[in-house]
Amino acid sequence: MNNVYDIIKKQISEHKVVLYMKGDAKFPLCGFSGRAIKILAMCGVKDVFTVNVLADDNIRNGIKEFSNWPTIPQLYINGEFIGGSDIMAEMYETGELQELLKNI
User: Fold this and answer.
1) Residues with Cβ < 8 Å from 91, sequence gap 6 or more?
2) Which phi and psi (to 5°) does residue 38 adopt?
3) What are the backbone angles phi and psi of residue 82, rounded to the nearest 5°?
């Protein structure tokens, strides 16, 4: 499993909610990552698998290529790329994010 895409695929297939972020849920290292964690908490998500992209440059660059999305954080739900913190906030405002997360 040396290919970074294989690692990412494994992470998003083994966990229902995956957040690629700077830092971790208890100690986010950027405002956008902190905002993403808060939004997930407001949706009642208790079990989020976080990946600190600052700990591994291969993951940090690989996730951007994998999703074709240039920024961190990145949220995956049930293996599907959702977006970053701005998209999460918009989806939260409309109730769409809560709907996606209600059975998780």
Assistant:
1) 82, 83, 97, 100
2) -65, -40
3) -100, -50
The CATH number of the domain where 78 resides is what? 3.40.30.10
The confidence score (pLDDT) of residue 1 equals 45
End-to-end CA distance of the chain: give it in Å, rounded. Answer: 28
pLDDT digit string (tens) for 26-80? 999 999 999 999 999 999 998 899 999 999 999 999 999 999 999 999 999 999 9
pLDDT band for position 103 (cuts 50, 70, 90) = confident
Contact status, residue 19 vs residue 52, Cβ threshold 8 Å: no
Number of domains in the chain: 1
Instruction: Name the pTM for this structure.
Output: 0.95
